[in-house]
Amino acid sequence: MKDFRLYDIADFVMDEDFIRWVQRKAPVDNLFWENWLEQNPARHLIIAEARQIVEFIQLEQEPIPVADVQVEIAQLLTTIHQSKKKAEPKRPWGRLAILSGAAAAAAVIILLMIKGFPGLTHSNKGLAPMILVPSVSSLVQKDNPSEKPLFFNLPDGTTISLSPGSRISYPIKFLASATRDVYLSGEAYFAIVKNPAKPFRVLTGELITRVLGTTFCIRGFEKDTVIRITVHTGKVSVSSQSPVQGVSESAPDGLIVSPNQQLVYHREVKKFQKILVEKPAFVVPDTLDHSMVYEDTPVEKVFDQLGRYYGINIVFDNELLNKCTVTADLANEPFYHKLDLICKAIGASYEIVDAQVVIQSNGCQ
């Protein structure tokens, strides 16, 4: 039994069942792949690109002897699964006649990855090759080969800032499904239009980020070993389609990421790590008094206010610190400097553990 979840683009364009579906579009095959994509939504972008490649293979040339084809495919497959260094193929394009089935797909996809084919692909630094042929699905595909962010709106009004070297795919309309799904490779900032009846989902590689309405950033280029999800406002939930170290499979809502938090997914070891952002910002309304000026104030009150203003959990032993007070003006200090000043005043220290601040102290006399 084939496990298509483990396939990359090269595997799909070489698979006879996949090629048959793309070329013949038999009802039974359509039903299978529709059900499979529904169960594996993060694979939509890979399937779309593989379909484009297979559909483009329509050139008719004199076939190469079977023995030569097998040698050619073996050599090219060795190259594609090695490091991504660019290499010139040993034979000119004319020698690689387009065949049907697995051999044809293998030759085309590998040449696209290694050398590129005029009129079919374009490459930019940090940008994976994109096939410049009409889409074979209802997805709209955008890429940003420039050196500046690309701003545009989705059909639901959601605003996206697509970073250089990134690409994104999304439906022409968000009417046919229960969720608003987009497929990202690279980095993008999202300002989501709220619609509780139709949650917004960003599918990045093996991760799914779910949100009703918020602003956040996702960075996950194909060459990156980690995927980073940073939340600015609201909350998102992140889950993986494969088991992740330290995360219970019975948690259908995934890991919750809040403002000033960043979730890091390490692809090689399949492990999540939740950290604080480098420069935490206020999460309370601007109309609230942000002065944070204290005069002999109990440290419990100071930590409580600091945690609420930044949306960050601060853990400390209240009984141990019940005699500690703070006198300081923290109005214009960044978050971590505020922590440094408070800890210095009470003779304590802190560390960041799982996106929380843990205060360590022997108490105040």
Please give a quick description of this structure.
With 365 residues, the chain is of the alpha+beta class. The protein has three domains: 4-114, no CATH class; 140-276, Jelly Rolls (Sandwich), CATH 2.60.120; 293-360, Phage tail protein beta-alpha-beta fold. It has helices at residues 9-14, 16-24, 27-39, 44-56, 66-80, 101-114, 299-310, 335-346; strands at residues 139-144, 150-153, 159-162, 166-171, 180-191, 200-204, 207-211, 215-220, 226-233, 236-240, 255-257, 261-266, 271-276, 293-298, 314-315, 325-329, 349-353, 356-360.
Q: Which descriptors apply to this entry?
A:
elongated; 365 residues; Phage tail protein beta-alpha-beta fold; three-stranded mixed beta sheet; 3 domains; 8 helices; Jelly Rolls; alpha+beta; 13-stranded mixed beta sheet
Describe this structure in words.
With 365 residues, this protein is α+β, with helices and mostly antiparallel strands. It has three domains: 4-114, no CATH class; 140-276, Jelly Rolls, CATH 2.60.120.1440; 293-360, Phage tail protein beta-alpha-beta fold (3-Layer(bab) Sandwich). The chain contains eight helices and 18 strands. The protein has helices at residues 9-14, 16-24, 27-39, 44-56, 66-80, 101-114, 299-310, 335-346; strands spanning 139-144, 150-153, 159-162, 166-171, 180-191, 200-204, 207-211, 215-220, 226-233, 236-240, 255-257, 261-266, 271-276, 293-298, 314-315, 325-329, 349-353, 356-360. The longest helix is centred in the N-terminal third of the chain and has 15 residues, at 66-80. Residues 58-64, 83-106 and 109-137 have low confidence and may be disordered.
